[in-house]
Fold this sequence. Notes:
By secondary structure, the protein is α+β, with helices and mostly antiparallel strands. The protein has helices spanning 2-24, 53-64, 69-73, 102-110; strands at residues 27-28, 37-41, 48-52, 78-86, 92-98, 121-123, 126-128, 130-138.
Amino acid sequence: MKASRILYLIAIIFSSFPLLAQEEEDIPFALIEKHPYYVQTDTITGEIKEIPFKKFLDQWVMKNFQYPEEAIDKNIQGRVIVILKIDRKGKLSIKEVKGGDPLLQEEACRIFDGFPQLSPALQRGKPIGIVYRYPIAFKLSQ
Length: 142
């Protein structure tokens, strides 16, 4: 009887470790309950707007995108996938860059310099870290 209680206690302790590890891992963007967003305050009216992360990210990339001159001269084109991490505090960082020429990868990273603070994603009402894959196409017009 005492041995079965000890085994039961050990089983409970070991079964709780995967739950702790899952809470520490970054959750894929598609699986979260509330996506991150950017808070924008109108300087005239004081109105606060929540801009969804994807919309804000697209606007940011369009505003900051510059095709590298050297890549234009060498006719380099391609697709770069930037794997972004947004931590529990809403800070964006680049986790990994895949594909494309190194010149294009460098520009893809530069685009995110100075990216502002976001409101973090929420899962069960708690802030969580997430990972988001963002493709950037570098294509020259003919």
